[in-house]
Automatic annotation (TrEMBL):
Catalytic activity: (S)-malate + NAD(+) = oxaloacetate + NADH + H(+)
Active site: H226 (proton acceptor)
Name of the protein in question: Malate dehydrogenase
Organism per entry: Panicum virgatum (Blackwell switchgrass)
Superkingdom of origin: Eukaryota
Subcellular location: Peroxisome
Binding site residues for NAD(+): G57, A58, A59, G60, G61, I62, G63, D83, N143, I166, S167, N168, M277
Ranges of Low complexity composition bias in the record: 1-14
Ranges for domain Lactate/malate dehydrogenase N-terminal: 52-194
Positions of the UniProt region annotated as Disordered: 1-29
Residues where substrate binds: R130, R136, N168, R202
Length: 358
């Protein structure tokens, strides 16, 4: 009996070892079909309860640390990592973390549908980043097509998923996503969210510095969009309540609006914000998942498509965006900023809409 058990255990280990032996990525064109552990050969019973999350562009500067953070999120049971390059390596690496989520990798367009099928939340950081001297809008020509293709896949394979769009220019890529979903008949404005959390993260940090407060205790609503003057911090609504001199208002508004450019210049050609962005995206995704779970009182700023397109304070819930909260009283400086933001936003939105409907 004991001998039989030992023989079975040895066979199980030999089979496992052959599955786990590292292989070059090129020998796994169907990476997601290579079993990490075969049900008959191990005691794993599959994923624990939780949400299924896909990251599209998972091997990039944002994608990798975001994958790490989502693998650490206890609400995630399955994590799909999709990219057109290097997905096998990132997947192998992240999959060794002893946290709950089961990780699977998907490489290239033929595997997009498998990456998306069954997902509850899809996060999109795919696309090229800025170099010094470029605006976010200069990324439109490349990133618009990438976002369109990925959203066509979402419409087909997981039309009910919450979608978090990170790829720039967000002011145009979110309208592109909306138009793709409209064409496919799957558009639900509650489920499409542009990620502007990095603006809030920066605003909290910079305001905390100016006021000498712990940035974790500061909450600055940032509305409008995610580029230059469309980024509108509401410094009159900072929590905890406080007041600023006009020099402080000018300094903070300009620093928050130009935070992305500050990082692009410091990186001197090696890309834009990746680590702080991954932190912001993970924070926002966690809020979306807590909303899906039914937690009450989750309010975040996000670029949503009901107004028709505007970053606002929104309440998240089981169906995504459950309520767009009023902007609240704006002071004169903020009202003037809002007019400028609306003008630029209208052009970026139209550019995205025309890209799909040309
Ligand atoms: N919303 C926001 O606040 C922010 C947005 N961004 C934007 O995020 C995007 C990504 O930035 P990084 O990660 O730094 O760039 P990156 O170049 O390091 O990574 C992008 C990844 O996307 C992948 N990719 C390209 N085409 C793809 C496709 N068709 N399908 C799937 N994956 C594809 C690339 O292979 C690469 O791994 C940029 O557009 C950037 O401007 C960056 C920072 C903040
Ligand atoms: O500035 C960029 O190109 C990337 C970005 O959106 C940000 O850091 O806010």
């Amino acid at each position: 009996m004991e001998q039989q058990q030992q023989g079975a255990a040895a066979r199980r280990m030999a089979t496992l070892a052959s599955h786990l032996r590292p292989q070059p990525a090129s020998s796994h064109p169907q990476m997601e079909e290579v079993p990490l552990l075969m049900g008959s050969n191990c005691r794993a019973k599959g994923a624990a309860p939780g949400f299924k999350v896909a990251i599209l562009g998972a091997a990039g500067g944002i994608g990798q640390p975001l994958a790490l953070l989502m693998k650490m999120n206890p609400l995630v049971s399955v994590l799909h990592l999709y990219d057109v390059v290097n997905a096998p390596g990132v997947t192998a690496d992240i999959s060794h973390m002893n946290t709950g989520a089961v990780v699977r990798g998907f490489l290239g367009q033929p595997q997009l549908e498998n990456a998306l099928t069954g997902m509850d939340l899809v996060i999109i950081p795919a696309g090229v980043p800025r170099k010094p001297g470029m605006t976010r809008d200069d990324l439109f020509n490349i990133n618009a097509g990438i976002v369109r293709t990925l959203c066509e896949g979402i419409a087909k394979c997981c039309p009910k998923a919450i979608v978090n769009v990170i790829s720039n220019p967000v002011n145009s890529t979110v309208p592109i996503a909306a138009e793709v979903f409209k064409k496919a008949g799957t558009y639900d404005p509650k489920r499409l969210l542009g990620v502007t959390t990095l603006d809030v993260v920066r605003a909290n940090t910079f305001v905390g510095e100016v006021l000498g407060l712990d940035p974790r205790e500061v909450n600055v609503p940032v509305i409008g969009g995610h580029a230059g003057v469309t980024i509108l911090p509401l410094l009159s609504q900072v929590n905890p309540a406080c007041s600023f001199t006009s020099e402080e208002v000018n300094y903070l508004t300009s620093r928050i609006q130009n935070g992305g450019t500050e990082v692009v210049e410091a990186k001197a050609g090696a890309g834009s914000a990746t680590l702080s962005m991954a932190y912001a995206a993970a924070k926002f995704a966690d809020a979306c998942l807590r909303g899906l779970r039914g937690d009450a009182g989750i309010v975040e700023c996000s670029y949503v498509t009901e107004l028709p397109f505007f970053a606002s304070k929104v309440r998240l819930g089981r169906s995504g965006v459950e309520e767009i909260l009023p902007l609240g009283p704006l002071n004169e400086f903020e009202r003037a900023g809002l007019e400028k933001a609306k003008k630029e936003l209208a052009q970026s939105i139209q550019k995205g809409v025309s890209f799909i409907n040309k």
